[in-house]
Amino acid sequence: MLTTQRRAMISTRLARDGQIVAKALADELGLSEDTIRRDLREMAAEGLLKRVHGGALPLTPPLPDFAARQTIASDLKCRLGRRAADLVKPGQTVFLDGGTTNAELARALPRDLRSTIVTHSPTIAAELEKHDAEVILIGGRLYKHSMVATGAAAVAAIEQIRVDIFFLGVTAIHPAHGLSTGDYEEAAIKRAIARQSAETYVLATPEKFGAASPHRIMSVSELAGLVVPADMAAEPLSPYGDGSTALIMA
């Protein structure tokens, strides 16, 4: 098989599966693992994929900083936030992950809603200053890119709380690679919160579908629901239409 043919196959597999395992692909093609690894190194050097131990992942565009992200697709995020706020009932304990879309959710919550809101994001907590809800702020090492607390202290506090709903923030959603994000410690925090939650939802903007970030959080099938734009194209949503995860239109 020619180098160009192998590279085309690698690109196709990445788009379909969300990952390449070098040994598995080498065995399938009857080639040496070194050959596949060399292809992956060269493609990574050209900016076509991201090399990871044992294989490769698709590239995801680098996220702008938190302040810049607040200005991106703000109307769409407002819609998602308002729809997600409808899922919150009086008396519930709700965990809000960080992120600009979840900030819109916090703004959309009725100010007289009697509930408990837990968050490890100081920016989310600040949005709830004038709300009647009790607010519990989890502390730890501040990951400034997402403005959330991470580390052992945050995990220890999270493990003492049981919540009804967790609104999880992610950077990528893929049918094979699942829900993922760009930071190792942040992914660990998100998994810890999900373990303490009866239901987990993701507010999903269209550009996150079909992408895979380096650090996996959980599978899409573990979610109670995806809150998505009502006018979103059907094709990116088709892998999630089996009913295991609710698609909630906003």
TrEMBL record:
It comes from Sinorhizobium psoraleae. Pfam families: DeoRC (PF00455), HTH_DeoR (PF08220). PANTHER family: GLYCEROL-3-PHOSPHATE REGULON REPRESSOR (PTHR30363:SF4), HTH-TYPE TRANSCRIPTIONAL REGULATOR SRLR-RELATED (PTHR30363). Keywords: DNA-binding, Repressor, Transcription, Transcription regulation. One of its GO terms (molecular function) is DNA binding. It comes from the Bacteria. PROSITE patterns: HTH_DEOR_1, HTH_DEOR_2. Residues 3-58 form the HTH deoR-type domain. InterPro entries: Carb_Metab_HTH_regulators (IPR050313), DeoR-like_C (IPR014036), DeoR_HTH (IPR001034), NagB/RpiA_transferase-like (IPR037171), Tscrpt_reg_HTH_DeoR_CS (IPR018356), WH-like_DNA-bd_sf (IPR036388), WH_DNA-bd_sf (IPR036390). This is DeoR/GlpR family DNA-binding transcription regulator.
